[in-house]
Here is the input.
Amino acid sequence: MGRKKSEGQATILQVAAQAELSIATVSRVLNGGKYVSEATRTKVLEAAKILNYQPNYMARQLHGQEDFSIGVLLGLDLGTISPFALKVYEVLKIFLQEKGYRAKRVKFDDNGELETRTKAYITIGVHDSDSRLKALETIDAPIIHVGEPKEDRYWIASNDEQGGYLATQHLLNNGCRTIYYVCLDASHKVSQLRREGYRKAMLDAGLIPAEVIEVSNSTQLPALDSYRRVRSLLESGLRPDGFVAFSDIVATGICTALADTGKRVPEDIQVVGYDGIDNDRYESLTSVCQDIEGLARKTTDLTIDAIRNEPARGANLDVLIKQGNTTKAASQSETA
Here is the structure.
């Protein structure tokens, strides 16, 4: 039953509860994002109206107060910024705002010098090899890493080994036995963790794990590069019955390659993606879902603790499987 706002400033959490939708979806609507149905948009706007929600309330209060800004570093371009990272950033902005902080994208000049000075910095899905990260580390301000575990630093990540295990276990429960793990960069820590989960599930089932299929990122378009790599392998004689993909984008490339080589998904070959992106492009995928709202909330809390000079620490958040159309219905004995 709906409730009218009676006291205090309504939050996006209350709007999400009122609309019975996720914070990510509500945030996307309120920020004018794409891939939202008209029915969903109407539902969110009606909930916001009932609660008299003012999304720019805190931002107006903090206008001009740089001491309350938090810098956020994402990938260099669309080729290195995943849809998942953008969704985390979208929700993170809301959580930081409700704690009295403004998130702003970090900028560098042509010489690679940092231009954006803030109280703390958050990186989302940024590789250790990124030169901008090295520049940040020279600044006397805490850095919070979102995406993978970091020794002796502030970090928040999904339990990627668990995710690789659940994806593989799902395929095994559906009768698959010749399963391959496909990733963009086998040396990347997150790829290694997901692959380790895949290997463990295969070994637990008494099967030999296959060598990882690494996709050459030659075009900077992961779906296209995945398509080319997997199609080439299929045409050279690869005979899988299941794929665990590093991401939903990679999974779409795999599915297209299968279709173009006469394979039916999921009747002939089953595919599990990773990220659980809930928009029109990826919603049909069976996928490992990361807790975007949980990551954003934990990151916000950790950022505030870092500003207060609390000891560095990290946390892993559990993931789960979302059933889609790219695998057969899960066995009743499966648990997420």
In short: The chain has eleven helices and twelve strands. Residues 1-6, 57-65, 332-336 have pLDDT under 50 and may be disordered. The chain has three domains: 12-51, 57-156+292-317, 160-289. The two ends are 30 Å apart (CA to CA).
